[in-house]
């Protein structure tokens, strides 16, 4: 029943957002003559500052309440209603901006470009969920992130994908994170925001392709629970790492596991580690061989990955504005009827020399060459960790949530017959 109510609520929010967008865009935008000069803004918009403060307050409030509901109350029902509130506020009201996922790019650019002023709200949205995750697990994913909330509403018949397929698809967020950091560090683009599947839906202004992408994620989310969160979200990588060291984490049972196996298929995200009953899954000799193999394999994968990334640096840098400009100068448009690109118009209006444009493009290519080595080495390390995880079996006797991949949704708790006394 609550799922039906939530979907009706979602349709209502979308209808309100659509009407707002239509009311704003139904009249043509004003056009100014070429001599128009934009007046200088003397003071910041006070409403924008108030909204930023309100966003921070709401974020901390939601993280605190959801963490309490997950760890202390162990209430799936209340966590669900909190996710609807987060979807309504951070999604439809604030239109997905600012978000913790996109803040990765703001923080990265601030680290590599001292001239970039990063908003305080971006720093807090990046740091606060990580801090809460370090103490309580991924409670941000449970009910605070609007991306997860909107996907959670359509997860009607989630299917198991299997450990190996989950592991292989789980590499994609690492690649996405590496590319996002590379493009942000070089000042090329904020690809997380550019290819955001849901913000355009909340703002009712996405391109047709992004509407289709977001729609496909929601449709596939009926059978594959939270596909974006599990197989695309770059911020989820950081939360995964942090949650493994969490001081407290949701447990399926509040006491000792009685091996009833009722929770075995309760998690739609395949985040429950099954018991490994053998006291010694591998003998010492076999384990030693595996460790030696992994010790040599990971550096090789990192080296091969880094070399491959460095070979692809020109292709990766092809979307950078300075590199595109240098290519256009070398290969000018021969057709006079074809309009010049924005980069070429800006170059001519600035009165720069061609040698300066080539020098700037060369610097960018060098940055991408170094970044290609780092990105490739990082991906090689990820693959090495994946292989190590498949080869090494950890001994445990209970059904336990995987502290890295568990989204703290509290679904599994309802399946456990052991209750708090």
Key traits:
single chain, 421 residues, 2 strands, 19 helices, mainly alpha, two-stranded antiparallel sheet, 61% helix
Can I get a quick summary?
By secondary structure, the protein is mainly alpha-helical.
Proportion in helices: 55-70%
Radius of gyration: 25 Å
Q: What's the order of the H and E elements?
A: HHHHHHHHHHHHHHEHHHHHE
Structural class: mainly alpha
Count of DSSP helices?
19
What kind of oligomer do you see?
Answer: single chain
Report the mean per-residue pLDDT as an integer.
Answer: 85
Q: Biggest β-sheet: count, sense, barrel?
A: 2 strands, antiparallel
Number of DSSP strand runs? 2
Q: What strand line-up does the widest sheet have?
A: 1-2
Please, how many domains?
Answer: 2
Explain this structure:
The chain is mostly helical and 421 residues long. It has two domains: 2-17 and 51-275 and 401-415, no CATH class; 284-391, no CATH class. The protein is 61% helix and 1% strand. The chain is built from 19 helices and two strands. The protein has helices at 2-25, 46-73, 76-93, 103-112, 120-136, 139-143, 146-152, 163-169, 172-185, 191-194, 199-203, 208-220, 227-231, 234-243, 284-311, 313-316, 321-330, 342-350, 354-391, and strands at 272-273, 400-401. Strands 1-2 form a two-stranded antiparallel sheet. Helix 2 packs antiparallel against helix 3 (76-93). The longest helix is centred in the C-terminal third of the chain and has 38 residues, at 354-391. The radius of gyration is 25 Å and the shape is globular.
């Amino acid at each position: 029943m609550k799922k039906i109510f939530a979907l009706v609520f979602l349709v209502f929010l979308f209808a309100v957002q659509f009407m707002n967008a239509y009311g704003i865009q139904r009249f043509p935008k004003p056009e100014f003559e070429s001599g128009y000069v934009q007046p200088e803004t003397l003071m910041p918009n006070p409403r924008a500052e108030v909204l930023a403060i309100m966003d921070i307050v709401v974020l901390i409030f939601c993280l605190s309440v959801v963490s309490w509901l997950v760890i202390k109350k162990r209430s799936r029902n209340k966590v669900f209603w909190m996710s609807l509130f987060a979807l309504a506020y951070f999604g439809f009201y604030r239109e997905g901006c600012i978000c913790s996922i996109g803040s990765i790019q703001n923080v990265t650019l601030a680290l590599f470009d001292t001239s970039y002023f990063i908003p305080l709200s971006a720093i807090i949205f990046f740091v606060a969920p990580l801090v809460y995750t370090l103490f309580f697990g991924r409670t941000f994913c449970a009910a605070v992130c609007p991306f997860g909330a909107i996907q959670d509403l359509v997860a009607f018949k989630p299917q198991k994908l299997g450990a190996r397929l989950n592991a292989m698809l789980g590499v994609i967020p690492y690649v996405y994170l590496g590319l996002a950091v590379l493009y942000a560090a070089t000042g090329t683009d904020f690809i997380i925001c550019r290819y955001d599947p849901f913000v355009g839906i909340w703002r009712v202004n996405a391109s047709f392709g992004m509407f289709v992408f977001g729609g496909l994620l929601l449709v596939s989310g009926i059978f594959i629970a939270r596909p974006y969160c599990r197989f695309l979200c770059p911020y989820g990588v950081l939360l995964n790492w942090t949650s493994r060291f969490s001081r407290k984490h949701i447990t399926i049972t509040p006491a000792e596991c009685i091996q009833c196996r009722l929770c075995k298929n309760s998690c739609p995200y395949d985040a429950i580690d099954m018991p490994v009953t053998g006291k010694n899954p591998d003998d010492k000799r076999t384990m030693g061989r595996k460790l030696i193999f992994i010790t040599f394999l990971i550096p090789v994968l990192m080296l091969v990955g880094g070399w491959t990334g460095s070979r692809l640096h020109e292709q990766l840098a092809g979307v950078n504005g300075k590199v595109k400009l240098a290519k256009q100068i070398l290969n000018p448009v021969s057709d006079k009827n074809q309009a010049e690109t924005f980069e070429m118009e800006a170059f001519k209006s600035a009165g720069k020399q061609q040698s300066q444009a080539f020098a700037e493009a060369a610097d960018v290519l060098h940055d991408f060459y170094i970044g290609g080595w780092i990105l490739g080495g990082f991906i090689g390390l990820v693959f090495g960790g994946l292989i190590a995880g498949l080869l090494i079996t950890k001994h445990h006797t209970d059904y336990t949530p995987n502290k890295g991949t568990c989204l703290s949704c509290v679904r599994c708790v309802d399946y456990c017959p052991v209750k708090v006394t």
